[in-house]
Amino acid sequence: MSVIRLLVLGAVRRHGRAHGYQVRNDLEYWGAHEWSTAKPGSIYHALKQMAKQGLLLAHEVAPSTAGGPPRTEYEITGRGTEEFFALLRSSLTSYDRGVEVLSAGIGFIVELERAEAVALLERRIAAIEGWRASVMEHWIPADGPEALGHIGEIMNMWIHSADAGAEWTRGLIGRIEAGAYTFADEGEPFAGVLPEGREDPYATGVPGPGSTR
């Protein structure tokens, strides 16, 4: 799964229509440039590629008053929306694709209805528990990691990671079921995007290739 595709599609969708610098600003505001592949160059590349693939619609707008080439704004298409939700659901149920995938999914979880979000997270727990059980076929934590030499520390780490992941997911489910956050079927979800013209306190300040701001 491409984390950058999920992040970029989701950012464009939240704006309705956005240019590359807005998308980049939003993702840097989330800190995504630190925990994912959402670097300036990859963001602009993803926008152009997904426009070619029919997931985004590119609109060329007038140049700024300061001059320069026309700016391109992007709008998500029907196919892009389908791709966004497929990637989102996959990110919330997959346990083995890295924390950046889960982070991207959590960033857009409120785009789902509350009941579906809970169901997807429950599937995540079931997947984690299934994977943990498969590890336990080869190693029993009560025996201690030393039973397999230092290699046992690998399985020890896996078990602890699985337990922590399941515990965190159960906590999130509990908060959601208790009424935390505003989901798609309940009104306007928290956008988490920067208003036009607002300075991003977390921006890198590094221009990206192909950027016309």
Structure notes:
- The protein is mostly helical and 213 residues long.
- The two termini are 28 Å apart.
Query: What is the N-to-C succession of helices and strands?
Result: HEHHHEEHHHEH
First-residue to last-residue Cα separation: 28 Å
- Major sheet details: 3 strands, antiparallel
Strand order in the sheet with the most strands:
1-3-2
Q: Which class of secondary structure composition applies to the elements?
A: mainly alpha
Instruction: Compute the CA-based radius of gyration.
Output: 20 Å
Task: Assign an overall shape.
Answer: elongated
The percentage of residues in β strands lies in: 5-15%
Structure summary:
By secondary structure, the chain is mainly alpha-helical. It has 8 helices and 4 strands; from the N terminus they run H-E-H-H-H-E-E-H-H-H-E-H. It has a 3-stranded antiparallel sheet.
Which features does this protein show?
disordered C terminus; 213 residues; mainly alpha; 4 strands; 8 helices; 54% helix
Give the helices and strands, then pairings.
Elements: H1 3-15, E1 18-19, H2 20-29, H3 32-35, H4 40-52, E2 56-61, E3 71-76, H5 78-93, H6 99-107, H7 114-136, E4 147-150, H8 152-177
Antiparallel strand pairs: 1-3, 2-3
